[in-house]
Design goal:
Elements (H helix, E strand, L loop, with lengths): L12 H8 L2 E2 L2 E7 L1 E3 L6 H18 L4 E5 L7 E3 L2 H14 L7 E5 L6 H9 L4 E3 L1 H12 L9 H22 L5 H4 L6 E2 L4 H7 L4 E2 L6 H15 L29 H13 L2 H12 L12 E3 L13 H5 L2 E2 L10 H14 L28 E5 L7 H5 L3 E5 L11 E2 L6 H6 L8 E2 L10 H14 L4 E7 L4 H10 L4 E5 L10 H6 L4 H14 L7 E5 L5 H10 L3 E3 L2 H6 L22 H4 L6 H22 L4 H4 L6 E3 L43 H7 L1 H6 L3 E7 L8 H11 L9 E9 L11 E9 L8 E8 L12 E3 L9 E6 L2 E2 L8 E7 L11 E7 L13 E7 L5 H4 L5 E4 L3 H18 L2 H8 L1 H5 L2 E6 H22 L9
Parallel strand pairs: 2-4, 4-6, 6-7, 8-9, 11-19, 12-13, 13-16, 16-17, 17-18, 18-19, 21-22, 22-23, 23-24, 24-26, 25-27, 26-28, 28-29, 29-30
Antiparallel strand pairs: 1-2, 3-5, 10-20, 14-15, 30-32, 31-32
Helix pairs in contact: 2-3, 4-6, 10-11, 10-23, 13-23, 16-27, 17-19, 20-23, 25-27, 29-30
């Protein structure tokens, strides 16, 4: 029997009616209404769930092929079940009965409107969802002229469906899932605040670490909504609640940062008034009645206090502070640099975010202030990482997670990418920037260990940090990070991040840092790894009490981001992505930036107050140093007054568990990691390059190389950058030749002036982060294979490269030039996903490519020699077009192919040059669409300027 297929999971009302009344050759739909008695009696919801599960089982036995769950059948005596609970209940009941594969589940529900609602329903078994209330709301807004649009209702519904579909694809992709079919029933969720009994029976297999709501509690919450719809006393003008989940509303959802607390924090720091700060922190910390955080349910267990004079000074605590990662581009230069100056004044660390920073900030100002960010992020695909950038860091942070949007790449809309930001990020002004999700290049702990090793070679004086997000299993990942020799692991909470985060991620991605931090500390202690690594946490840390709880749960350092932004003027408008910030914090508009009033002094005051408040708590609890506090979870207990029905059943035993230790097990970092850089080949290179490093004299030498020689040239590039800064040495000043098989990351972050020539082959990450060096590779003189038909360098070559040249005689593996933003490379064939997320530079492929070429490519140009006319089928054309060659392209191709032939003696290049005119017909130019538009505008502006200066009209042709 052939079954009907749904093109996508969001069903219109018409689609649903077709399914409801389908009757074709034994293919029918059984509708089950998901209501329960609204009598408030214990067990009512459970009995109703048993009923619908029984009906579903009967339906399968009776031969129905589709179960349609509908919540439309309700009245004053019957309330609607939560659609997710009903769906999951039937899904798991049919699995237990061995019937699930015989039937599809369709959901007709009014409590579905956000992308997360669709994602969870699909994740727990639904094949299609009809959000009828969302459609009716859209129609109502249209009919009452509350939408400024000329679009029809049908078009508005279509746009809604398209938006949901796009967001679902993003959710799938950040989990590494390619198809809806793979996501359906996958249950890639963790529950927060649902009891173990409910989870085990209705959401079987889902993680729920702190228990919580019972079925009767869930029924009670549903009845609260039901009574609003059917009030006992008629309401003359019933209105919906104002909401305020994402943005503060006067009578809406509670927010810890609200107009009153924002005003108090800003007023306290600007007046340097600690008493005002204490008033602010009391308002934040007093969560006895309305628990807005997990830590709001905790209190300290009293101990023998000590005089506050015996507690370590504020200056010691300052060193443990960092500002959260906020990129230049997402926030203004004024806000970004103000935070950096403040942190450098107190000896803390500011974080560059993935946007990097202008190299002019690496040097101190005449007054002694320093805008340099001590922590520089290296996301897995970050923009514009150079040897010089890495050299000017005290800590290098590998961003494996995004705080408020874990698993997603960073995003910066094109209208915020001005000339300045484009230059800093090595990208094209006006073109939006997408940072690929972490799994695009970090597939295993070995890949992560390699990046840690690369970065340690790039700056051996810097700490290497890995940023993870709070989620179930993060402790195991953190243990792997420690074994991979990172110096710091950061556990980011779910409620960090800027207002530019996607709305569906602000609330529905990641978990509170309390959960991830506790798991991480316990796992590291259990495996005797805690003493090797610093544990840091961040995510809406606002007060000294937050710092103390974080320390007791296992963190010896803290990141403070949103509170720092509020201190410099942020008023939480949550319009960061629109470039319209009225206080000059999250904007690149020059007029709005002029409104910025933040001062480093204010930020210094905030961190001083935080440290002072922490010292008071330490004295009260009897701790003289922060180190004494780390991991002492027995000093935390749950508030006795926690009796609200929604959280009285929470169980924090697993969070507050204290791992038993012996005297040989550390609770905080006490030993340095062994980064295994003492015996690297680069020490020999540095010695041989001494004349060049000291006096810029030309040097050359030859060395044998083996596959255990990793990151060759990286430490040498660090030495070049220390003395010769970003411009490096003149091209080819240091010419080193190698023969053999290079290990991973050959030439990584290679600096200007370096020419590395390799006779042999190389492993993955060849030319990673290339920063101006020249790399040449050709097969060994004894090789008998045909280079153009064999892979000679591994996967992800030139990953994140910013400048330089490369000539490779032979084929590359997969993900060639992913995130390339400036290197000019020639290669004789590539695997799948070539030029993925490329933002600049030139890639010339003198041979075949694999599938999915140019996915996410927003800048730069690729030229593919397509003799067999097979390339266009293998290219992802979502963001690129195929363009005819112009004279400038022909000149570029000729020059680079001649270099390739000269450096590698390539027969492929020789044949192309010998038949140049005929060969040109086989080149396909791959041009990103947005990049082309920007280039055309630049060209038009340049011609207009010429016309203005000459006084003569100039015809401007644009496509």
């Amino acid at each position: 029997m052939s079954y009907p297929e749904l093109p996508q999971p969001v069903l219109t009302n018409a689609d649903l009616e077709k399914i409801r009344y389908i009757d074709h050759k034994g293919f029918q739909t059984k509708t089950i209404y998901t209501y329960f008695r609204a009598d408030g009696k214990p067990g009512s919801l459970e009995r109703a769930l048993d009923r619908i599960c029984r009906y579903a089982e009967d339906g399968v036995e009776d031969g129905f092929s589709i179960i349609l769950l509908s919540d439309r059948s309700f009245d004053s005596s019957h309330a609607q079940m939560p659609s997710l609970l009903a769906t999951a209940a039937i899904h798991h009941h049919l699995i237990r009965k061995g019937m699930r594969g015989k039937v599809g589940i369709i959901v007709e529900a009014g409590d579905v409107w956000e992308t997360h609602h669709f994602a969870t329903l699909i994740g727990y078994g639904a094949s299609g969802i009809n959000p009828y209330m969302a459609f009716e709301t859209i129609s109502d807004l249209k009919q009452k002229a509350m939408l400024e649009t000329t679009l029809s209702e049908e078009k508005l519904h279509y746009n809604y469906i398209k938006a949901v579909g796009g967001e679902l694809l993003k959710i799938f992709s950040k989990m590494g899932i390619s198809t809806l079919q793979s996501y359906q029933g996958a249950q890639i969720f963790e529950a927060v605040g649902i009891s173990r009994d409910v989870i085990d029976h209705y959401f079987t297999g889902t993680v729920s670490r702190i228990g919580g709501l019972t079925l009767d509690n869930i029924a009670k919450e549903s009845l609260v909504k039901h009574k609003l719809a059917f009030p006992e006393v008629p309401v003359p003008n019933p209105r919906l609640e104002v909401g305020g989940v994402y943005q503060w509303k006067l009578r809406g959802e509670e927010h810890l940062f609200n107009p009153q607390t924002i005003h108090l924090l800003q007023h306290a720091t600007r007046k340097n008034d600690y008493s005002l700060f204490k008033k602010y922190s009391r308002m934040i910390d007093d969560q006895a009645q309305k628990a807005l955080t997990l830590r709001g349910l905790f209190k300290f267990r009293a101990g023998k206090s000590v005089p506050i004079e015996e507690v370590e000074p504020v200056e010691n605590i300052f060193k443990r502070f960092a500002t959260g990662a906020m990129s230049f581009g997402s926030i203004s230069h004024e806000a970004h640099s103000t935070l950096a100056i403040a942190m450098n004044r107190i000896g803390g660390k500011s974080n560059s975010g993935e946007g990097g920073e202008d190299a002019s900030r690496f040097h101190r100002k005449p007054n002694g202030d320093w805008e340099n960010s001590a922590i520089k992020q290296v996301a897995s695909g970050r923009f514009g990482v150079t040897s010089y950038y890495l050299t000017n860091a005290a800590e290098l942070q590998i961003k494996m997670a995004q705080g408020a949007k874990p698993g997603e790449g960073g995003q910066l809309p094109g209208h915020k990418v001005d000339e300045w930001i484009g230059r800093v990020r090595h990208s094209t002004p006006g073109v939006g920037l997408i940072s690929p999700p972490p799994h695009h290049d970090i597939y295993s702990i070995e890949d992560l260990a390699q990046l840690i090793f690369d970065l340690k070679n790039a700056n051996r004086a810097a700490r290497i940090s890995v940023k993870l997000v709070s989620e179930a299993g993060v402790g195991t990942i953190a243990a792997g990070v420690a074994k991979a020799h990172a110096d710091v692991v950061l556990i980011a909470g779910h409620d960090g991040g800027t207002g530019a985060s996607p709305l569906s991620s602000i609330r529905h991605a990641g978990l509170p840092w309390e959960l991830g931090l506790a798991e991480t500390h316990q796992t590291l202690v259990r495996n005797k790894l805690r003493g090797r690594i610093v544990v840091q946490t961040d995510g809406q840390i606002r007060t000294g009490r937050d710092l103390a709880i974080a320390a007791l749960l296992g963190a010896e350092e803290w990141g403070v981001a949103t509170a720092a932004l509020v201190t410099v003027g942020c008023i939480m408008m949550r319009k960061c992505h629109l470039n319209t910030c009225p206080v000059g914090v999250a904007t690149q508009d020059k007029e709005l930036r002029a409104l910025f009033t933040g001062r480093p002094e204010d930020v210094v005051n905030m961190f001083t107050f935080l440290a002072m408040e922490l010292r008071e708590i330490m004295a009260e609890l009897g701790f003289r140093t922060v180190n004494e506090m780390i991991g002492q979870t027995d000093r935390i207990e749950v508030r006795e007054a926690v009796n609200h029905w929604k959280f009285k059943n929470l169980d924090f035993n697993a969070i507050l568990y204290k791992e038993p230790v012996t005297l040989d097990v550390a609770l905080y970092k006490q030993e340095e990691q062994d980064h295994a850089i003492d015996g690297v080949l680069d020490w020999k290179l540095i010695k041989a390059a001494k004349p060049a490093l000291e006096d810029a004299e030309y040097v050359s030498a030859e060395f044998p190389i083996r596959n255990v020689d990793r990151a060759v040239g990286t430490m040498l590039s660090n030495e070049i950058s220390k003395k010769y800064l970003g411009q490096g040495l003149p091209a080819g000043t240091i010419h080193f030749k190698f023969r053999g098989t290079a290990g991973q990351s050959f030439g990584a972050f290679g600096a200007p002036g370096l020419r590395l020539e390799l006779e042999g082959d190389a492993n993955d990450y060849f030319g990673k982060g290339l920063s101006g060096a020249q790399l040449v590779l050709y097969p060994d003189r004894t090789a008998t294979f045909e280079p153009s038909k064999n892979i000679i360098i591994g996967n992800v070559a030139f990953y994140g490269a910013t400048s330089g040249e490369a000539y490779v005689q032979g084929m590359a593996g997969e993900r060639f030039c992913v995130r390339n933003s400036g290197v000019r490379a020639v290669v004789e064939g590539v695997g799948d996903h070539g030029c993925e997320y490329m933002t600049g530079g030139i890639a010339i492929i003198l041979g075949e490519t694999g599938r999915n070429f140019a996915a996410g490519m927003s800048g730069g140009v690729a030229y593919v020699y397509d003799v067999n006319a097979s390339f266009k089928k293998r290219c992802n054309t979502e963001m690129v077009d195929f363009e005819p060659l112009e004279e400038e392209d022909v000149q570029t191709l000729r020059a680079m192919i001649e270099n390739h032939q000269q450096f590698t003696n390539s027969t492929v290049a020789g044949d192309i040059l010998a038949n140049w005119d005929q060969a040109l017909a086989h080149f396909v130019k791959v041009m990103p669409k947005d990049y082309k538009v920007v280039l055309q505008k630049r060209k038009a502006a340049a011609l207009a300027e010429v016309a203005r200066q000459s006084g003569e009209p100039v015809a401007i042709m644009t496509n």
